[in-house]
Amino acid sequence: MIPIDGLPVLTAAEMRAAERAAMVGDVTEATLMDRAGAAIARAVARLAAGREILVLCGPGNNGGDGYIAAAMLRRQGLPVRVAASEAPRSDGARRAAALWDGAVEPLVQAKPAPILLDALFGTGLSRPLDHSVQQALCRLASAAWLRIAVDLPSGVATDDGKLLGEMPRFDVTLALGAVKPSHVLQPAASLMGQVRLLDIGVSTESQAHILARPGLPEPNATSHKYSRGMVAVVAGSMSGASELAALAALRAGAGYVLHLASTGPSGPASPHAVVRRGYAADALSEERIGAIVIGPGLGRDSDASERLNAALASGRPLVVDGDALRLVQIEALAEHDGSKILTPHGGEFTHLFGKTADGKLSATRRAARQSGAVVVHKGADTVIAAPDGRAILCPEASPWLSTAGTGDVLAGAIGAMLAAGLEPFRAAEAGVWLHAQAARACGKAFIADDLADALSAVRG
Question: How far apart are CA 129 and CA 270, in angstroms?
Answer without folding.
Answer: 57
